[in-house]
Amino acid sequence: MTDTPYSVLFLCTGNSARSIIGEALLNRDGKGRFRAWSAGSHPKGEVHPFTLDLLKSIGIDTGFAQSKSWDEFAEPGAPEFDFIFTVCDTAANETCPIWPGHPMTAHWGIPDPAAAQGTDAEKHLAFAEAARQLGTRISLLLSLPMASLDRMTLKTRLDAIGQTQD
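Request: output the structure for the sequence above.
Response:
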């Protein structure tokens, strides 16, 4: 096991909900073993207010949360990622920047809570469901014996996590 935390980037199109939630949950639950960031291919420019409400409701400080472009993570001096997880179908099918270090990638698609229709209560429920799904996948990631898995096995496991139906 390395003393250096694994670096993870959560990607989505708008970087206003799912990727921000993934970043927050992994930074909280990774307990120093992981360091997460998030970005979008076409960032909204602001974090969805229901994302902020959700994070505050589970005790996560939202001071980190900002909608940003994935371009800033492809520039010199940006973190070198071990893993990149796309959390929406649109970002998974887009051409991504060339990432230094050739990180392992996996698609962990989650329905977009920002697209939820209905009452505010129903919309909040969609955000809670996205967080639950991401939390389950992050828990599975954290349970992997990273040091003992070869690259191909790890890739297979990361892809399987993305297919988790809980």
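The first helix runs from residue 18 to 29.
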